[in-house]
Write a structure and sequence with these properties.
Blueprint: E1 2-10, E2 15-21, E3 26-30, H1 37-52, E4 61-69, E5 72-82, H2 92-105, E6 110-119, E7 122-127, E8 132-134, H3 149-152, H4 157-167, E9 169-171, E10 182-183, H5 184-198, H6 201-214, H7 217-227, H8 229-240, E11 246-253, E12 260-267, E13 270-273, H9 279-293, E14 299-302, H10 314-324, E15 329-333, H11 337-341, E16 348-354, E17 357-362, H12 375-384
Parallel strand pairs: 2-17, 3-15, 3-16, 9-14, 14-15
Antiparallel strand pairs: 1-2, 1-4, 4-5, 5-6, 6-7, 7-8, 10-12, 11-12, 12-13, 16-17
Helix pairs in contact: 5-7, 7-8, 8-9, 9-10
Length: 386
């Protein structure tokens, strides 16, 4: 799976993202604060959500996304609209008030006005107010207009491949739960289900892709310890290369509870539960675990890579990401001098904004190939002096 490009427009706030072309390994989005880096990541997430789930957002958007899977090149375009009464007669203030109410009470209904999927230049399906066509189908039954054909008809070969591609796009979130514990019976059930599915060749890759999406960190480590000790040892070794004081990481019963387990870090022969470990150490463990669980079919999105990492580990973390990028596509944002200055200029996408229009330039278009100076200083000096 490779994500080739994306373009997007949020019609509610009149925000446009011009077509952004991605590298097949690393695309580092760099720009001034407010330039639109996070909006590009968010646009990909919104399109993935519409393709695989529903139009649960009240927003009216239009967008297109290009991706390649198993040698097939796909382009999917979609437009959503609000289905409430026409707002055209209201003034701007009234429209803003109505949007606030929609956000507060979730009473808005957004529907798919049109969508189109092509594979290698040939139409797979086309859906709008005049035509509902799926290649190979003589008749299409009435469909939920809040869901994409990609999720509704995901058993059909070409649509299934597209559905699989969207589900392989994974954004790594760094959130520290209020309490780090998992019920023992729930963990045992997840381990048993994973062990069973891993024995089925046709489900193994699909489940591997889903694995990072749906499980908490404790469950991920528990499953690895039980089903793939070799992979867990790789995770642990990379973690210990950053935090040498950590002798081991294990799953054990929560203090005062016989029904829940948590993660323990062994430091100086003392077991310290994850709730008493620094957030930077926890975030590093989350990132490394997710990276090693990801397959070559994944596209990994990371917004603000450096957030939460200490100065003693951002270099090692960045080196691990770059090593993984030999086989996995990464699209990420950063302001960090080390991250920016330790990457080839061809991997940069310089994000800029003119009013409500977001656009990008490659490192070559930004003329980074003409300088031997520090990329961080060069990029931000030029942007600030424009």
């Amino acid at each position: 799976m490779v994500l080739n490009w994306v373009e997007f427009k949020n019609k509610d706030i009149n925000l446009s993202i011009n077509r952004v072309h991605f590298n097949s390994n690393i695309s580092l989005l760099v720009g001034l604060t407010g330039s639109g880096k996070s909006q590009i990541i968010s646009a990909i997430e919104v399109l993935c959500g519409i393709a695989t789930h529903s139009t649960s957002s009240f927003q009216s958007i239009s967008g297109s996304i290009s991706f390649s899977v198993n040698g097939n090149d796909y382009i999917w375009s979609v437009e959503t609209i609000r289905s409430e009464e026409d707002d055209s007669d209201r003034d701007d203030v009234s429209n803003k008030i109505m949007n606030i109410y929609r956000m507060m009470y979730y009473d808005a209904k957004t529907i798919i006005a049109s969508e189109h999927l092509s594979c290698n230049g040939e139409t797979v399906f086309n859906r709008n107010d005049k035509e509902n066509f799926i290649s190979g189908f003589s008749e299409i039954p009435p469909c939920d207009n809040t869901r994409s054909y990609i999720s509704l008809f995901n058993k059909y070969k070409k649509i299934k491949e597209a559905n699989f591609a969207f589900k392989s796009i994974y954004q790594i979130w760094f959130r520290r739960p209020a309490a780090y514990k998992v019920n023992i019976s729930a963990l045992d059930d997840k381990i048993a289900r994973f062990s069973f599915l891993s024995e089925l060749a046709h489900d193994q890759e699909e489940y591997k892709l889903a694995f990072p999406f749906f499980h908490d960190l404790i469950s991920k480590i528990g499953i690895l310890l039980d089903t793939n000790a070799g992979l867990w040892n790789e995770v642990l070794a990379n973690y210990q290369s950053i935090f040498e004081e950590v002798e081991d990481i294990k799953i054990g019963p929560c203090l005062g509870s016989k029904e829940a387990v948590t993660i323990y870090f062994v430091i100086n022969h003392v077991e310290i539960d994850i709730g008493n470990i620094s957030s930077g150490m926890v975030k590093t463990l989350q990132l490394i675990t997710d990276l090693f669980l990801s397959s070559e079919s994944n596209v990994i999105l990371i917004d603000e890579l450096e957030n939460g990492f200490g100065i003693n580990c951002i270099d090692a973390v960045w080196d691990i990401v770059k090593k993984k990028a030999r086989n996995i596509q990464f699209i990420l944002t950063s302001h960090h001098p080390y991250v920016i200055s330790n990457l080839d200029y061809s991997k940069f996408l310089i994000v800029q904004r003119k009013g409500n229009e977001i656009f990008t330039q490659t490192g070559k278009e930004f003329k980074l190939d003409e300088t031997h100076l520090d990329y961080y200083d060069m990029i931000f000096n030029r942007l600030e002096n424009k």
